[in-house]
Amino acid sequence: MSALMSLSKLLTRDTLQEMTPENLEATVRRSSRNGLAPKRLQYSPEEETPKKKRKTKAVAENGSQNKKPKDEEDAENNDVEHAPEEYGRLSAYELERLENIRQNQAFLSSINLFQATEEFKQLTRPKPSQRGLTRAHAAVKEVLPPRKSLRLQKKEAEILELPPEPRGTLIYEQSSPAKKPSGPLPMDPVNVEEGSKLPPQLLELCSEDAKEDKKIQLDLKGYRSSVKNMKINEDKVAKVVKDRIFSATFHPCTSSLLLAAGDKWGKVGLWKLGGDWGDDGVLLFQPHTRPVGCMAFSRSHPTQLLSLSYDGSLRCMDVEKAVFDDVYDIEDGLKTFDFMSHDCSTLVVGNWYGEVAIVDRRTPGNSHESLHTLDPKTLRCVNVHPLQKQYFVVAESKVVSIYDSRNLKKTKSQAVSQLHGHSLSISSAYFSPCTGNRVLTSCMDNNIRIYDTSTMTTKSPLLTTIRHDMQTGRWLTKLSAVWDPKQEDCFVVGSMMKPRRVQVFHESGQLQHSFMDSENLSTVLSVTAFHPTRNALLGGNASGRLHVFSD
DNA sequence: AAAGCATGCCACC
DNA sequence: TGGTGGCCCTGCTT
């Protein structure tokens, strides 16, 4: 009996998508051992990779955690494994019934249900939202005059010299557009008619005083219900930039939802939900030429959006002045920044050579002092303590360090505290939003970790470890867990699980909610962020679409 | 329409 | 250490 049952159970569970790659693997293993549909129940290409990934050292070490206890597994298989020996005692009716079941199984296997369900899901997958940037705008093609060869023009061919061999190791330099010149860039949207002015409502909205941060900490139950109330619909998805989103943020205003996203080719899109300017409320700009790794609105001057790019530029979009001003600039390789003061005038900026710079926006030029980390080329995230602004946390290669900006040296600065336990590279590290008593990290070893930084001792203790598939691969922005600024102890993170979802966890590791929607959420949302004051959550995907869950 | 292509990551050897 | 191979989304082109 259980042959068909476990098959149907498997399919049902898969359809319900309560399955992690781990327990899927376990179920498949069980089914194969029982001689059920051994071939057909192999991984579809989609499911195959998590298994392969588990070959990595860190995962292999912890892999056993995910297996069910053996007796539980055996209990589930009991009737199957003993069935053959019992055949002799069965009535003719029962034998016939078993034979029917066997034939049904063979049939089900032969039609390749597993693959079929995957294909069905592909077929029924909703079309991406057509809101926001239109295709015409997304791919602006230059209209070139018709070309005629010299031969057709009946002219003598010129002797052309080959361009010099490109030098340097950066192959991207050949293909990517040149970096924007320094100095203020006019804030001209690239997706609306040339010469048209910024909509006046944008300035109005951006100028809106950020409501006094009344951080009313809810109890967990209250928080859960507020989060469960947040929904998505077709009006809350739009293509805001052309390509893969690297960073995104909410504007702090509350009368409308205004969002910004930065993409792989240095574009920055602004989107007001329900807005009537641009493409469905979307305005697109190009202040940079390579990925916009980090962006944030100034809390003291909300008409300003700071954006940082791998191309080495850090700019300040000022809606009032309608320009992108220079803030800081190096040749190449800016990675991350955070505000160091409440007035947002000083910043800590990190590059991928492992240096951090303290930048004061009030003094012109690159006035900064540098800190050289022990592990060059591994700095991925900096984040400033919410209360004690002299402290900032740095995700280095396999260790997270907390530094005191007052005690920085040119090299070999002493960390105030270190967070140990990561076995692979760390993609992000953030102080908890209200007290800074916790640091939340996301690591390529497939773990999210929470540390206790309340005492700031030389070694901050690890409190919680949460297993989470971080293998986004090359084409997706890496996942990072980020706190809800309204709730000291809860955070949000994207997920690779199908159906696609965004998860909210408590610092204890307890899952609070999974945001899902068969119609409007069908892709991995790598970039996630909560609104600073409203019940709203954003998620950005690899095709430039922003998704909003709100109440 | 199905298939192919492009694609700024990481860990491992 | 640099080179290599696997990651496996999405949108657009052929």
UniProtKB/TrEMBL annotation:
WD repeats lie at residues 419-461. Residues 1-88 are annotated as: Disordered. InterPro entries: WD40/YVTN_repeat-like_dom_sf (IPR015943), WD40_repeat_dom_sf (IPR036322), WD40_rpt (IPR001680), WD_repeat_DNA-damage-binding (IPR050853). GO terms for cellular component: nucleus. Residues 79-88 have a biased composition (Basic and acidic residues). Keywords: Repeat, WD repeat. GO terms for molecular function: DNA binding. It comes from the Eukaryota. SMART domains: WD40. Pfam families: WD40 (PF00400). One of its GO terms (biological process) is regulation of DNA damage checkpoint. Belongs to the WD repeat DDB2/WDR76 family. Interacts with CUL4A and/or CUL4B. PANTHER family: WD REPEAT-CONTAINING PROTEIN 76. Specifically binds 5-hydroxymethylcytosine (5hmC), suggesting that it acts as a specific reader of 5hmC. This is WD repeat-containing protein 76. The lineage of its organism: Eukaryota, Metazoa, Chordata, Craniata, Vertebrata.
